[in-house]
Amino acid sequence: MKKSLMALATSLTITAACSKKDNPIKLSKEFLLGKWNLTFSSFKKTVNTTVETDTIYKNLAGNYYDFKANDTVYSLIMGDYDTAYYSIGKSLTGEDQISFTHIGDAKADILNIIQISKNQFTIYQKTSNASPGSNVTYEIKNILSR
Asked: Which of 114, 36, 127, 40 is nearest to 73 (CA)?
């Protein structure tokens, strides 16, 4: 009897541990709410096949995004304060996304969530502007942490 209770307790412990591990963080408004510190930011500009700009910022103390329940996000990025509206959704391929629309703008900036954990997430955007004889690609990656 003692052995079977021990086996049952061990089995329940293993099941609980596995279910926690298999339960990934889901992007939701509740998850985003509050202040997130910008801890890493990179920007890359490529024209045709030539990288013209490749800038990485680390140790960004004081830079943040503050997500509010009214779908507004306040930010301080490298000395510039900004206010935008945000929404969350999925891409056509099922990737989590955050859309930012600056007040007065009709077009939203859509960034993919490429990594998410309890206290950190990474947003990424890659856009291209092709014109005859020139293809310009921009890549942005930001890591936000609590």
From this structure: 36
Q: What is the pLDDT along the chain (146 residues), one digit of tens a residue?
A: 444 334 333 333 333 333 334 457 888 999 999 999 999 999 999 999 999 999 999 989 999 999 999 999 999 998 999 999 999 999 898 899 999 998 888 788 999 999 999 999 999 999 998 888 889 999 999 999 99
pTM: 0.77
- The CA R_g of the chain, rounded to the nearest whole Å, is 21
Rounded Cα–Cα distance for residues 121 and 143 (Å): 6
Return the CATH number of 25-145, one of 3.40.190, 2.40.10, 3.90.580, 2.40.128: 2.40.128
